[in-house]
Each structure stands twice: as structure tokens, then as C-alpha cells.
């Protein structure tokens, strides 16, 4: 393809531009970085404009801006809406990074930086693939870009934006690169994502911090209580104990399970990579099923009492935790949040008061392998990897995918190029140079095949 040749002639520049974007600490969750987030939005807008997009706009929202741009070449051709995000997760703990998170560095053919893969690297592949198609006169579909800056903070303003911009966002399909594949020699496409229900809990005991000697043993310690309440949320088989939690799940058929488990997966490699001697999870399910088709409950953070230097003998007044539940098809995040809340309140001992505060949520999604968009993505990856991709289930969440379907009536295709070793959200996040360039090479094929098949 001509666009591949263009890519090959511009590799260094394409990498240099990504580095520029990676240097901007666009952490959406932390308001101290508001200015940087805005700068990243401007950067994306400018590059879209330079690549040839029309009507490029940095759209204000109640939170961080959404970058829009389009190239409509022929009303007879289908329109692809490219979605991605330019915001990133916080980079803490900083001391665990080998090189600083916002000073991108290449080591072993990989780009190390926060957002290298999730999602700056993957999103920027689309900007460069678009440039390549424009420069070589090979753009095969109309294209619209919607790049947001709040994905890592729950996409709170994207739903309202979609509703308010239905006409502008009219398209045939949404194309997203924000997921992972099995391996560089085993391409795959996620056909499912988990939903999310996220809550913060507060447990209050005595009305003030107390001397743990004077009162200890006679007054309930909210940290002890909270720790037990969290521990009790799984039984000895790894099942979640919240009544009704599993009610709406559609069990997979034996055939579906077999297909899922036939994907290449090396449990020993997996354990070695994570430095663990044994995996854990719901009894009766494989690791791939546990992350792909089963729901979870995880404590993401827990705090209270004294954590400073030395010791302080204190029986704290309060304890807190952030708890996430990953949901699978047919579970509903509002319903699960409500079940959690009533369960948590019902099991709290009388010695404490509890409060449950819901955070953002999102619904699980499933995308069929029979759709035109799946087939086009499959054929595109086959063209550039020389192998047909395997359909897989991603354990992560992109809450907005369900919303695209509900509000815009659009299906999404999750053509991601990351790998599990990219360490998303972790220290030393990275993205393979191979993956960055392979993505830029593959995207034009998707456009081409989608136009042909549609
Ligand atoms: N890109 C990820 C989601 C992802 C990663 C899906 C790998 C499949 C495979 C996305 O940026 C993300 O991190 N989503 C959050 C949810 C959000 C509401 C904070 C998540 O999954 O925790
Ligand atoms: Mn992402
Ligand atoms: Mn993420």
C-alpha cells in the first residue's frame, strides 16, 4: 500500500511527534494538571489540522475538552468515527519508574512513558495513519475524530457531548485502538469489554481518634471492621458474597468457553511476569475466563489512621476504601452499585456507621464477530500481521462504548495493538515500536476493507 511507503519514509518524525505528546503530563484525574490536559488537547487538534482534517475544534466541556475533526470526501462512502483519549492515568509512585514518566525513552525497542500505549500511542497512530492516507490520496472512507481527555476519569462529559452533537457525530461505525492483543505474532481483537461499578466507602467508629491503649479493646476499630467487611466479600471459593450479584449474568455455553480457552496462553509465563507463585480466582474458571467473562470485586485503595513515620498509638475514628467491581454482559452498573450499597450497610456491625458513595460506572459490551466492521478489522490485521486475529475478551473497561451504542446507535470495533506487558496504569508503562508502526500500517487497510465491504 502507498500509505505503508509513506509510513516507512516518515517513521522518525512520527515517533518524534508522539514523544512531544508524551511529554505533556495530561493527567485527567488531578486538577493540578488541568493546564497540561488542555495543552495535550491543543496538540492533538493542531496535528489533526496539519494532517488535513477539516472543522477541527477543541470543544469545551464542564471538564476537559474533546477534540473533534473530520474529513468528509464523498457522501457515498461510509464514515468512520475514530475515538481515542489523550488523557493519562496518574504516574505515581514515581520512584518506581526507571526513567521519568513524562520523559519518553526508548529501551529494548520500546517507548517508555505514561500513556505510551494507553492511549496516546494508540490514539496517535490514527492521526498518523490519516496523514498517510491524505498524503497518498488513499483515504477510502469519510472520517471523524473524537478524542477525549477524560477517559481515565470516567468520561463524565462525553455522554452529554454525544447527545448534544448527534448530527455532527453521524457515522457508520466507531473505530477504537485502546485495547491489547495476545502477542505480536498472535494478533487478536477484543470482542468484549467488562463494565464497571466503582464505589468509595467510609466507616466511622468513635467521634474522634482515640488513645489505642486507653480505649483499645473496648471500642470497635473502623480499620479492623472495614478490613473484615472487605475480606468477607469473597467466600473460600472466590465467589463474591453480595446477594444477587451474579443473577443477571448469562453463563457461557461450553462451546464459547472452549473457544475462549483455546487462545494461546501460558500460565507459567503469566505467573513469572507478575512475580507470583500461584494465581487466584473464582473456583471452576480458568484465568482467561476470570478476566474475560467473570465479574470481580477488588479493593483499589484503603486508608485511615496513622501512616506517617514511626508509630502513633491511635484507634482511628474513620477508615476508607475504594472498591471496584468489573461487570460482564448483562449485569448493570447501577443495579450492582445498589446491591453493593445495601449489602455493605446490612453487614456493618452496630459499632460503626457506614457510608457508600458511588463513583463513575459503565456497562459491559459485546461486539459480534459477524459484523462488517469485525470482518474488516480481521482482514486488515491479517494483511499486516500475516495471520488471522483471534477474537478475545478484554478484562478492562471503556465505558463509553456502551454509550455510543445507546446514544448514537453506533457499534464499535476494538482494533487494539497493545500487549499485556505494556504495563498500563503501572510504573514503566511502555509501547513497542513494532506496535506503534504496525498500527499505523494496519489502520489504512481497515478503511480500505470497510469501504469495500460496506
Ligand atoms: N484502555 C483502557 C481499557 C482497556 C485496557 C481495555 C486494556 C482492554 C484492555 C482504558 O483506558 C481504561 O483504563 N479504562 C478504565 C476504566 C475507566 C472508567 C477509568 C479501566 O478499565 O479501569
Ligand atoms: Mn485507554
Ligand atoms: Mn487506561
Secondary-structure blueprint:
Layout: H1 2-9, H2 11-22, H3 34-51, E1 54-59, E2 66-71, E3 79-85, E4 105-107, E5 110-112, H4 120-135, E6 142-148, H5 158-164, E7 173-176, E8 188-193, E9 195-204, E10 210-211, H6 222-231, H7 254-261, H8 267-274, H9 287-292, E11 298-304, E12 314-315, E13 318-327, H10 333-347, E14 353-362, E15 365-366, H11 372-385, E16 390-393, H12 400-408, E17 412-414, E18 430-432, H13 433-453
The structure holds ligand BES and manganese (II) ion (2 copies).
Question: How would you describe this protein?
Answer:
The chain folds into 2 domains: 2-193 and 364-453, Aminopeptidase, CATH 3.40.630.10; 195-249 and 295-362, 2-Layer Sandwich (Alpha-Beta Plaits), CATH 3.30.70. The chain has 13 helices and 18 strands. It has helices at 2-9, 11-22, 34-51, 120-135, 158-164, 222-231, 254-261, 267-274, 287-292, 333-347, 372-385, 400-408, 433-453; strands at residues 54-59, 66-71, 79-85, 105-107, 110-112, 142-148, 173-176, 188-193, 195-204, 210-211, 298-304, 314-315, 318-327, 353-362, 365-366, 390-393, 412-414, 430-432. The strands form 5 sheets. It has a 6-stranded mixed β-sheet, with helices on both faces. It has a 4-stranded antiparallel β-sheet with strand order 11-13-9-14, with helices on one face. It has a 3-stranded antiparallel β-sheet with strand order 4-5-18. Helix 2 (11-22) packs antiparallel against helix 4 (120-135), helix 3 (34-51) packs parallel to helix 4 and helix 5 (158-164) runs parallel beside helix 12. The protein is globular, with a radius of gyration of 23 Å. The two termini are 20 Å apart. It binds ligand BES and manganese (II) ion (2 copies). One manganese (II) ion binds next to loops.
Amino acid at each position: 500500500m502507498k500509505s505503508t511507503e509513506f509510513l516507512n519514509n516518515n517513521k522518525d518524525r512520527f515517533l518524534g511527534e508522539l514523544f512531544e505528546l508524551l511529554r505533556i503530563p495530561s493527567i485527567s484525574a488531578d486538577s493540578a494538571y488541568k493546564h497540561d490536559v488542555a495543552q495535550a488537547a491543543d496538540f492533538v487538534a493542531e496535528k489533526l489540522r496539519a494532517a488535513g482534517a477539516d472543522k477541527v475544534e477543541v470543544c469545551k466541556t464542564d471538564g476537559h475538552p474533546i477534540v473533534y475533526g473530520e474529513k468528509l470526501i464523498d457522501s457515498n462512502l461510509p464514515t468512520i468515527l475514530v475515538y481515542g483519549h489523550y488523557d493519562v492515568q496518574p504516574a505515581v509512585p514515581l520512584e518506581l519508574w526507571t526513567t521519568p514518566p513524562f520523559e519518553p525513552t526508548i529501551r529494548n525497542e520500546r517507548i517508555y512513558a505514561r500513556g505510551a500505549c494507553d492511549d496516546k500511542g494508540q490514539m496517535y497512530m490514527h492521526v498518523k495513519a490519516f496523514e498517510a492516507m491524505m498524503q497518498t490520496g488513499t483515504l477510502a472512507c469519510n472520517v471523524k475524530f473524537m478524542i477525549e481527555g477524560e477517559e481515565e476519569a470516567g468520561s463524565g462529559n462525553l455522554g452529554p457531548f454525544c447527545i448534544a452533537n448527534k448530527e455532527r457525530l453521524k457515522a457508520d461505525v466507531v473505530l477504537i485502538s485502546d485495547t491489547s492483543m495476545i502477542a505480536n505474532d498472535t494478533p487478536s481483537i477484543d470482542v468484549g469489554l467488562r463494565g464497571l461499578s466503582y464505589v468509595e466507602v467510609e466507616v466511622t467508629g468513635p467521634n474522634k481518634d482515640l488513645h489505642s491503649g486507653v480505649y483499645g479493646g473496648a471500642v470497635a476499630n473502623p480499620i479492623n471492621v472495614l478490613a473484615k467487611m472487605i475480606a468477607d466479600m469473597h467466600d473460600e471459593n472466590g465467589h463474591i458474597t453480595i446477594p444477587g450479584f451474579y443473577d443477571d449474568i448469562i453463563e457461557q455455553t461450553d462451546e464459547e468457553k472452549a473457544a475462549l480457552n483455546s487462545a494461546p496462553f501460558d500460565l507459567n509465563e503469566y505467573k513469572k511476569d507478575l512475580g507470583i507463585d500461584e494465581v487466584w480466582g473464582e473456583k471452576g474458571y480458568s484465568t482467561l475466563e476470570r478476566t474475560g467473562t467473570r465479574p470481580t470485586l477488588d479493593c483499589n485503595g484503603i486508608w485511615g489512621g496513622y501512616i506517617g513515620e514511626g508509630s502513633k498509638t491511635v484507634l482511628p475514628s474513620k477508615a476508607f476504601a475504594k472498591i471496584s467491581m468489573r461487570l460482564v454482559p448483562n449485569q448493570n452498573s447501577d443495579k450492582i452499585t445498589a446491591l453493593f450499597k445495601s449489602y455493605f450497610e446490612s453487614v456493618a456491625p452496630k459499632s460503626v456507621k457506614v457510608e457508600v458513595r458511588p463513583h463513575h460506572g459503565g456497562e459491559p459490551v459485546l461486539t459480534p464477530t459477524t459484523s462488517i466492521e469485525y470482518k474488516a478489522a480481521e482482514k486488515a490485521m491479517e494483511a499486516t500481521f500475516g495471520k488471522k486475529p483471534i477474537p478475545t475478551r478484554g478484562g478492562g473497561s471503556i465505558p463509553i462504548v456502551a454509550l455510543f451504542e445507546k446514544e448514537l446507535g453506533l457499534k464499535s470495533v476494538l482494533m487494539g495493538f497493545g500487549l499485556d506487558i505494556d504495563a498500563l496504569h503501572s510504573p514503566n508503562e511502555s509501547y513497542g515500536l513494532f506496535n506503534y508502526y504496525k498500527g499505523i500500517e494496519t489502520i489504512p487497510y481497515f478503511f480500505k476493507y470497510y469501504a469495500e465491504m460496506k
